[in-house]
Amino acid sequence: GKKWTKVEQLNSELKDQVVLVRGRAQAIRAVGKKMAFVVVRKRGFTVQCVLTVAPDLVSPQMVKFATSLSRESIVDIEGVISVPGQAITGASQQVEIQVRKLYCVNKAAPTLPIMIEDAARSEVEIEKALQAGEQLVRVNQDTRLNFRVLDIRTPANQGIFRIQYHVEKIFRQFLESEGFFGIHTPKLIAGSSEGGSAVFRLDYKGTPACLAQSPQLHKQMSICGDFNRVFEIGPVFRAEDSFTHRHLCEFTGLDVEMEIEEHYSEVMDIVDRLFVTIFDSLNETCSKELAAINKQYPFDKLKYLRKTLRLTFEEGVQMLKEAGVEIDPLGDLNTETERKLGQLVLEKYGTEFYILHRYPLAVRPFYTMPCHDNTNYSNSFDVFIRGEEIISGAQRVHVPEFLVERAQSCGIDVKTISTYIDAFRYGAPPHGGFGVGLERVVMLFCALNNIRKTSLFPRDPQRIAP
Ligand code: 4AD
């Protein structure tokens, strides 16, 4: 077979060697009739290919053919690597290919709704180009999402989705090393798993049913089935009404559930070590991807401590109070007060990643265990990156009679979750866990401003396609 080289592998060590690459014709420029440049791109990396009419290179017909190619067509290029005297600005790789052969494998439509070069520019680059009088189209978010297959070709987007997979991979590896194993719980369930109105209802062969708002009930039931320590990576459905920068109607949940031996802080210990491991690994092994994201969407590296800061909700309320923000000590935080507290925590403790625990019981779901020393509070926590929530977790109520009481006092129709309650009647160990929103982790690690950027084909209250 032929020997292919990847665009990202092209470097000056290959000087004078013949290479064969496949990619897309991102930009095509003719210089008279005897020369043309084709920038070829593959997974966010680009190389400049030079067509020059010469006996050992290409024919005039080939130059004509190259300049007639439509952008984004798939091409195969065979040529010799050369190293130009000056830096190449229009491509990521600092070598050129002197083309000998060019084949069009499959052509793209003659006009494109999005130009990848335009879609890949940072705000600063756009401003500069506009000031320089350059003609360019600012590609808005909706257009990007409407033509997502084009949009995800930008280097930043190529980076985002590889980083997202890396988070998932390290999540799995770390938990495995801690004695957890992966499960899959049903997404079609009889009653809502988190309560509230954000639930998609459907007809299940004549019986009312829901799309699971989380694996909550079944991951707990698996603990009742002696599974001891489990995790799940799967879709989560929320019929959110609010059209915000951080709510999707379908997202990827990273869920954990575990037996507790003595104290619910064991669950927070897992969160702590898991996320320090994930952040370290991203910084160590994803530098190319992070650089690509940073180029389009500049951001500062996340500040986090070796041992994650834990504050109680009461301490958080106190910090806000000292900063002149009064909130109900037994109420919840909102987007604004969460952000504010995030700033205060950064100033005082130098971290943008922390755990806030002992939340007021009244603002937590029915399955949450109250604190034994003060039932106004609960053994529960939220975790924040840059002042926004990425995780919520808790110890659960494992005594069936008490669980019924808690469900009823939260206004839940116990009949709809009777099989869940029954699971606790045959002996249930103390346990707890947490749920992470994958898209939020990537969004906030990279300080992106919209969760739609970290969802491959986002579903929000106004979008179910493509
Ligand atoms: O805070 P939530 O609703 O908690 C649960 O689902 C619990 N069952 C977790 C547990 O084990 N106690 O959701 C967990 C996480 C949130 O912290 C957030 O990161 C993410 O899921 N999330 C969303 N992400 C995107 N779009 C939405 N609409 C989200 N709703 C929650």
TrEMBL record:
<dbReference type="InterPro" id="IPR006195">
    <property type="entry name" value="aa-tRNA-synth_II"/>
</dbReference>
<protein>
    <recommendedName>
        <fullName>aspartate--tRNA ligase</fullName>
        <ecNumber>6.1.1.12</ecNumber>
    </recommendedName>
</protein>
<keyword id="KW-0648">Protein biosynthesis</keyword>
<keyword id="KW-0963">Cytoplasm</keyword>
<dbReference type="Pfam" id="PF00152">
    <property type="entry name" value="tRNA-synt_2"/>
</dbReference>
<keyword id="KW-0030">Aminoacyl-tRNA synthetase</keyword>
<dbReference type="InterPro" id="IPR004523">
    <property type="entry name" value="Asp-tRNA_synthase_2"/>
</dbReference>
<dbReference type="InterPro" id="IPR012340">
    <property type="entry name" value="NA-bd_OB-fold"/>
</dbReference>
<dbReference type="Pfam" id="PF01336">
    <property type="entry name" value="tRNA_anti-codon"/>
</dbReference>
<keyword id="KW-0547">Nucleotide-binding</keyword>
<dbReference type="InterPro" id="IPR004365">
    <property type="entry name" value="NA-bd_OB_tRNA"/>
</dbReference>
<keyword id="KW-0067">ATP-binding</keyword>
<dbReference type="InterPro" id="IPR002312">
    <property type="entry name" value="Asp/Asn-tRNA-synth_IIb"/>
</dbReference>
<dbReference type="InterPro" id="IPR004364">
    <property type="entry name" value="Aa-tRNA-synt_II"/>
</dbReference>
<comment type="similarity">
    <text>Belongs to the class-II aminoacyl-tRNA synthetase family. Type 2 subfamily.</text>
</comment>
<dbReference type="InterPro" id="IPR045864">
    <property type="entry name" value="aa-tRNA-synth_II/BPL/LPL"/>
</dbReference>
<feature type="domain" description="Aminoacyl-transfer RNA synthetases class-II family profile">
    <location>
        <begin position="161"/>
        <end position="458"/>
    </location>
</feature>
<keyword id="KW-0436">Ligase</keyword>
